[in-house]
Structure formats: structure tokens, C-alpha cells
Amino acid sequence: MTDFLSLDGMYNACLHSSGQFLKRSRNILLCSVSLPFNSVASSTETVCFATVPGDAGSQLEANLTGKPSVVHYICSKQTKDYFDLWLNLELFTPLVIDCWVDNMLLVFNSSTGTTTNMPGVDIRVPGFGGTSTIEWLDKSRASPGSYFATLVDMMTSWGYKSGKTLQGAPYDWRRAPNELYLYFDALKVSIETTYRYHNHKKVVTVAHSMGNPVMLYFYNHIVDQEWKDKYIESHVSIAAPWGGAMQIVRVFASGYNMNYYRVILPPSKLRGMQRSFTSSAFLFPSYAVWNSSEVLASTDAKNYTLANVEEFFNDINYPTGWEQYKVASQMNGNLDPPGVKVHCIYGTGIDTAEHFSWAKGYFPDYPPDIVYGDGDGTVNRRSAEVCLRWNESNNHGKRVTTHELPGAEHMAIMSSPVAIELVRKAIYDLL
């Protein structure tokens, strides 16, 4: 008999209920929390379910099963077992980084709107149910890989136990939500099982960065209102790019070295890989936030807006991007409210890319000049504040609270004492 009180038992049940979930969906981050007995809200027990961002937010492991070709003679075609793919700082050395990029690439099928791994590459996400793989993205625990470590430490001090009352469910952040249906099936079963084995107490979901629009898709496309009313207590969003982020325009055009991880990577080496991720198209600036005449990027010869996105992708010599965008831009559409109580925490007051321009001869292969606006350094303020549009009248009677944190940077917010205290109050329904 399956022991649903353990995370392994719950996860195995999810796997059985959704077939090839682990192989196909590559996971998401899950966190389950029961309220400490000495909390001010000790009369109830709460379960917390947390998702992680799509952009480099969980570890990836790869097994090479026989690649038909490699980009350098030093690159392996086959491995005996899974090895650390992300985050692994040892792979970011000259030449080796090219092997890494080739292993990370996705292959887009325009007929299905979905992707596959490169031939001969199998990728999985480790650590479902625990927290170690989200606390640190690099198993060496080098400082660039610190992620949920501070928050997990604080929650442990509140009485939660990693792998038991504090759970995780990392997912393949390279993929957009339309590729996560088997994952969502497992996620749904996990929440239902957690609810059932915690005395029918509703679940709190917590997400950082892209985990929030992923969960918005889940709430608006996978489950109905009756299900949400029964199982979900609230959703806590941290630094959410609800309507995408302008930095994705640079990702597609010139590549971006994810400098908020403080890892020095050449953008030109990353561009092809980043373009192949359907999560990049999913985070392209949304028409529900940016108007169609607003200039997102410009060269000496042309302005690019949401009205001529196809030209943008053609001009950067990546027409596949248009096919990806046509699928991804419809996923969250008009950014309708999720139909659950929301506590929205976000940073402002930090220079955040608002417009990119390239001088003659520099587009698209060279870094652009940047005009900055307000945000958290990664997510534009207007995207983070989509939750201001939601209220009880349009969110099925569910309350929405918003908490602006001036000076809170996109990644640093995860260790901000103010943000962590807001998370605590949100979980205990004290906001």
C-alpha cells in the first residue's frame, strides 16, 4: 500500500496516475507545509505548494544515450549515467560550454507547438518532493547557485520539515506550459492527495518569477472553479512576470547571459539555446500589458512593436520564433485572474530594461543600447503589477493583496527579510 504521508509515496502516485510524466514533462517545484503548533494561527493547518521560475530555476540532469553528432571532438556522445547539466559551473569553460549548449537545446515542432530534446539526449529534473535542489541550483553550493536556501532555512525555523511538511516540485523550465500537461495532471493529483492527508486543509501555492504565469495557466486552463474552491487556500506570488519581460526581446535578438546569477557566460554562445526554449516565447512581452504601437526595439532602419513581431523574428534570422510566439502568446491571453486568493509580492525602483536599440551594423549579433524603466531589474513594473487589476469582483470573490517592495531585486527578493515575513503572513492568512 502506498504511503501517501511521505513525499515519495505521493510522487509515485502522481507518476502512476499520469503515465510518462517524469520522462515527458520534466517536473515543477512542490512545497508542502503544515502550520507550526506555536504559530499565532495555530488553530489551523496549512499546506504550501511552491513553484519555481521557468528561467533557470531548478537543477537539470542529462544522460547522453548516443548522440549522432557533436559540436567538438571533446564532446561526449554517450554517458553511462545522468550527470549535472544545470547549474554546473564546470561546464562553462571554453569549448566545453559548446557541448553544454548543444545538450540543452530543444527542437521545436511547428505542427504540434511542442519540443523534444536533441537526439541522443535525455534530460530529467531531480529532487521532486525535497528542497535541496531548489535551495541550491549548483550541487557544489557555490554562491551563484543559491536560490531558495534562505527561505527554506527560515521556514525550517518556523517548524516545517524539508521533504515532509516543506515540499518541492521542480520542473523543466525550458518549456512553456502547453508542454506540461502531464505534469499538471500529476500536480493536480499531488494537491488533492496532500489535501486529503492533511485533514482536508486547503493548500497554499507559492511561486517565484515564471512559476507564477505557469500557475496562472494551471488555474485558468487545467482546473475549474469548483476544484479551486475546494483545494486552494491562496496563491503567493513573488516577483511575477505576469505579462512577460522586456529582457526576452534581447534574449531572442542577441542572447543574454543571465547575469542575475552572477555567472559570466558569453551571450553569443547562449543565444541559439535560449531561442529554442519555448519558455522564452512564453515570457515575450504580452499584448495585455504592452500596447501594439509601443516600440520595444529599434535599429537605424526599423522600429519593432507587437504589431510587427513576425518581422522582428525574420530580421534576427529566427523565423521559428514567430511560430513559437503564435502558440505561446495565447496561453495566458488577457491575463484573467486565477480565481484563487492572491498575495502579490514584487520589487520596484531598480533599473529594468524597457527598450533596446542597435546602431547600424550591430543588429542582431551585438549587445544593444538599453533604455531603462522601473522594475526589479528583470521584471518590468507594469508586468509585476498585473495583479493590481484583480479584485474580489473579477476574481470569483477571492481577495487580492499587493505588496510593493522598493529596492527588492528579482533574485535578492528571495532572501529579503521583508519579503520572507510577507510570505509567512500570507501562508498563515495574516495579510
Rg for CA atoms:
21 Å
Shape: globular
Ranges with pLDDT <50 over ≥5 residues?
1-45
Task: Trace the largest sheet across and list its strands.
Answer: 1-7-8-11-14
How does the helix and strand content classify structurally?
Answer: alpha/beta
Order of helices and strands: HHEEEHEEEHHHEHHEHHHEEHHEEEHEH
Q: Give the tally of β-strands.
A: 14
What does this protein structure show overall?
This protein has a five-stranded parallel beta sheet, sandwiched between helices. The chain contains 15 helices and 14 strands. The chain has a single domain, classed as Rossmann fold (3-Layer(aba) Sandwich). By secondary structure, it is an alpha/beta fold. The longest helix has 16 residues, at 181-196. A hairpin with a 4-residue loop joins β4 (106-109) and β5 (114-117).
List the helices and strands and how they pair.
Blueprint: H1 7-17, H2 21-25, E1 47-51, E2 60-64, E3 83-86, H3 96-104, E4 106-109, E5 114-117, E6 121-124, H4 132-135, H5 149-157, H6 181-196, E7 203-208, H7 211-222, H8 225-231, E8 232-238, H9 247-253, H10 267-276, H11 278-282, E9 297-298, E10 303-304, H12 309-315, H13 320-328, E11 342-348, E12 352-357, E13 369-373, H14 381-384, E14 400-406, H15 417-427
Parallel strand pairs: 1-7, 7-8, 8-11, 9-12, 11-14
Antiparallel strand pairs: 2-3, 2-6, 4-5, 9-10, 12-13
Q: What is shown here, in short?
A:
This protein is α/β, with parallel strands linked by helices. The protein has a single domain, classed as Rossmann fold. It has helices spanning 7-17, 21-25, 96-104, 132-135, 149-157, 181-196, 211-222, 225-231, 247-253, 267-276, 278-282, 309-315, 320-328, 381-384, 417-427, and strands spanning 47-51, 60-64, 83-86, 106-109, 114-117, 121-124, 203-208, 232-238, 297-298, 303-304, 342-348, 352-357, 369-373, 400-406.
